[in-house]
Amino acid sequence: MRPESPLHHAKHVVRAALALVVGIVVIVLGRSFFVPETWGQFGSYRGSNVSEQMARPVRHGGNESCRACHEDQYDELASAGHESLECESCHAAVAQHARDDEKIADMPIQRDLELCLTCHRELDARPPSFPQIHAKQHIAENEGEFTEDACLECHEAHWPL
Questions:
Q1: Sorting pLDDT into bands at 50, 70 and 90, what band is 3?
Q2: Quick one: three-class SS letters along the chain?
Q3: How far apart, in Å, are the Cα atoms of 12 and each of 2, 23, 146?
Q4: pLDDT tens by residue, 102-120
Q5: Structure confidence by residue, pLDDT tens digits, 69-108
Q6: CA torsion 80→161→60→95, rounded to 10°?
Q7: Counting beta carbons within 10 angstroms of the beta carbon of residue 151, is it exposed (0 to 12), middle (13 to 18) or buried (19 or more)?
Q8: Which of 32, 78, 98, 131 falls 20 to 30 Å from 13 in CA-CA distance?
Q9: Alpha carbon of residue 70 to chain centroid
Q10: For residue 92, which of 108, 76, 114, 73 has the smallest C-alpha distance?
């Protein structure tokens, strides 16, 4: 622009506006290349992910999947101390034990102290009526040894009290 032009001092505004327009165009075009078509279909995630997850093999089946083969144990444990838990909470996922109604391996059992303390560690946030312990103190009072399977040395897992 010529020095005598009235817009001579406004050239930086024109450049900023041009840079802004170019930036917006780049963002809009870039977004169309990098954001999947199904983004936002069911919320703020990729909609096609739903069908991808449904195609994955089922690993957890819940207590009903155990009941199909273990009806007697299921009925017996229905009134046990841990009846509100899923079998897979302490055992493994059903997919490690059975597929297509056939046993493929023995069901693993988690026996470690930390599993029990996940629910029974003494916390102020838990209701006072819920069974809670301070692990080291509880084991010492009962003359036990503080080992990984300390809980199951004295307590039966399904009827813990």
A1: low
A2: CCCCCCCHHHHHHHHHHHHHHHHHHHHHHHHHHHCCCCECCCCCCECHHHHHHHHCCCCCCCHHHHHCCCHHHHHHHCCCCCCCCCHHHHECCHHHCEECCEECCCCCECCCHHHHHHHHECCCCCCCCCCCECHHHHHHHCCCCCCCCHHHHHCCCCCCC
A3: 14, 16, 74
A4: 888 998 888 888 888 888 8
A5: 888 888 888 777 787 888 888 888 888 888 887 888 998 8
A6: -100
A7: buried
A8: 32
A9: 27
A10: 108
Site of tokens 């010529």: 2
Who's near 87: CB < 8 A, 6+ residues apart? 63, 66, 94
Give me Rg for the CA atoms of the chain: 31
